[in-house]
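Data deposition worksheet. Section B asks for the primary sequence of the deposited chain exactly as it was used as input, without tags or linkers unless they were present during the calculation. Section C holds the resulting structure in token form. Section D is free text for depositor observations; keep each observation to a single sentence. Incomplete worksheets are returned to the depositor.
Section A, Depositor: J.P.
Section B:
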Amino acid sequence: MKRLILVVAVLATSCSTPVVFEPVIRPVRTMVPSAMQGELERTFRGAVQASDEAALSFKVGGQVMALNVKVGDVVTADQLLAEIDATELQLKLSQANASLAQARASATVAQTNRDRIQALYVNNNSTAADLDAARANADATAAQVVAMARQRDLASQKVQDAQLFATRDGSVSQTLVNEGELVGAGVPIVVVTSGDRLEVSFGVPGTVIARVEPGMKTEVRTQTDGGGESITATVTEVGLVASGATFTVTAVFDQATTELRAGLPANIDMTFPAMDSHTSLVVPLTAMGKDEEGSFVWVAKPTTDDLAEVTRVAVETGAWSADGIEALKGLTGQEHVITAGVSRVFAGQIVRLANAEQP
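Section C:
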């Protein structure tokens, strides 16, 4: 009985002392974003192409019966390049000719009848109503002849469109179909290039397209440059509408060279001047997050010497470089941006500044 009383006393004593559990405060590393220093260098992927290039296609669809050229062939203007099966088109032309002949015959009969009734009317042997009807019939058949003639001309043009001719002197850089294939109207069949001047076309993302202007110099490297040398090209065209995630930019080579060929893949090096430090801050890529609301960073707002509260700050990103990614809007350059432990923090969380000075 004494042992039981002693145990109860001990338990009562231990329960009267509350156990305090201190929250675990996660440490994070931060940095203050700085202005992007120096020039921004970027490399884009593109391809060499002829400055004067035409993708030729049929105006009508059908089965390709003849492809008279191959890649590398030199062609002249009005040279026959390809043909499609025109059997059905020829049949429609024959039907149009028959309809036109029938309309002309009807018009001839109507005109003869009108003239006959008009002569009778002059001699008071026909009524005015009969003459009006004859004239109306003659006019209607004449209009039918005009309509049938237009249909015949259209059918004839489609027969001609079954043949594909070169529009200029040049050389064949691509043949995009084979004999026997079915193609639709407007589908490219042969690509013809002309002129000795070459250019390079490449895609630039929207984050830096605003910095690209006609007249800018680029350095182009291809597989034929021996791995080190590059060829200078000047930007001539900057796309205004995005194609996918990039804008198309075209640059013309400053000097002709025999090493280049249309279709060669190329790396295009561009150097952009640094933007104003008030609008161009750089943060590490590891600090940047993105969700359905857009890009953001976690900012630690100090509450004591070594503690801070986490806040989500939306940012507008720009170009990226070896130093990080531009934050064009959202940051002032005074914030403590979290760079380590980013995936384990949330808004309102209290964290310990691992790189803060200890009191």
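Section D:
The CA atoms of residues 93 and 155 lie 5 Å apart.
The chain is about 25% helix and 40% strand.
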